[in-house]
Write a structure and sequence with these properties.
membrane; DoxX family protein; transmembrane helix; transmembrane
């Protein structure tokens, strides 16, 4: 079974994002809601999950399960997008309209992953 080329693009995006959690953790630590415990652990686990799921997307045997994992991950990190929108200190100097666009973008990314679940 061969996988579509656009699945590899999605996998690359998540792989690079996952690596970035370790290369530049301060960005991610700022957007983790303050009510969550142990932001460093959350950052490391979400980065590791992105890397593992990205690799899994590229393996025909695990690609469907990994796509479901991406959907779950996107849902789990949605509070960070809300936190960025509501908290200027977590906004990373992004204008409010950019932070607002991130919310429906999550839905688009979820749909993109959902395409590969069947």
């Amino acid at each position: 079974m061969s996988l579509p080329w656009h699945l590899y693009i999605m996998a690359l995006l998540y792989f690079v994002a996952g690596i970035n959690h370790f290369r530049n953790p301060r960005i991610y630590l700022k957007i983790i809601p303050a009510y969550l415990p142990n932001p460093k652990l959350i950052n490391s686990l979400s980065g590791l999950a992105e890397i593992i799921l990205a690799i899994g997307l590229c393996i025909p045997f695990t690609s469907k399960l990994s796509a479901w994992g991406i959907i779950a991950l996107l849902m789990a990190i949605f509070p960070a997008n809300l936190y960025m929108l509501q908290n200027e200190q977590a906004a990373l100097r992004l204008p409010k309209w950019v932070r607002l666009i991130r919310l429906p973008l999550q839905g688009i990314l979820i749909y993109w992953a959902f395409i590969y679940t069947s």
